[in-house]
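Justification of resources, computational component.

The compute hours requested in this renewal are based largely on the per-chain cost of generating structure records like the one below. Each record pairs the submitted sequence with a full structure-token output. That output is archived, and it is also reused by downstream analysis tasks.
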Amino acid sequence: MPTQKTHTMAIRYPFVYNVGRCIHNGLSVALGAYRRSTALILSGKELSLLVNEHTSKLCRAFEERFSRKPCLAVVLVGDNPASKTYVKGKKKACDEIGIAHIDFTYDESLSQKSLLELVQSLNDDPNVDGILVQLPLPSHIDEVKVINSIDPAKDVDGFHPVNIGKLLLGQKSHIACTPKGILRMLDHYGILTDSKDVCILGRSNIVGKPMAALLMQKDRNATVTICHSLTPDIVPYVKRADILISAVGHTNVVTSDMVKDGAVVIDVGMNRVPDPSKKSGYALRGDVDFANVEPKTSAITPVPGGVGPMTIAMLMENTVVAACDQKGIDTADLEVLE
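The structure output for this chain reads:
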């Protein structure tokens, strides 16, 4: 696992990394970020373009070497509007980057047995490198059984117990995309976690738990607190946090009176708020009261355009890593086409 001094972004994008550190140190440089008030706006949208560009080069090199593209199987069960939107975005990213995708779309009547049989067939297919089963699943399907049935080597979401266990132990594994994307953003913008108090709001298997596991590793050295729905009062924990990561899923959970001056705020929330002025009829808002919290922070992610694009970028990267792993090579072994 790369250290903060020799992390992936520094190796792949030394110029971008150094510029990011310069911004963090207060120099008037803009690349993937812009300044409002005194806070640095952490643009995942801009950073994801750089990550995707590199992933696309790896895809071309992989195809040249193995005569096929890295391949992601995308499984959608049911008619959940948010899930359909997320899957559409992931498939669009595959097309833009150069990852092949095989799509399996079913109505919610699909049986658990049929879904498990599909997953097993994808596990056995040597031309499928990654498997993504979009969550949530219909209520009659046991999500845990489905996740556990995915080959850990093809678990590009990083949800399988084997990958979570390896992550906790600091071993190489597929890392859940949102936590991985958050760390990439912190690294890119030169925000160190060593000896920092980090407060995570939310204890989900997708964000909160793996995020905490990553930050407590010896290459990160953060002191981590997790708050959840049964924490009697989150305010004292939030107030002392040098870095706050909110993944609750409710608007305005974090207000300005809760955040200490100079904190770094990462907003994972993606909440739909009715807005008749929008064509879709809704606007996306995070967990954080951005307008009032932003002036108190040293750095903050916007919603949209913050964590979301990085989550998809990490999924694409994980798929290429999985393809290389199954070929017995490292991504560094590919001759990247310029």
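The longest strand covers residues 71-77. The two ends are 26 Å apart (CA to CA).
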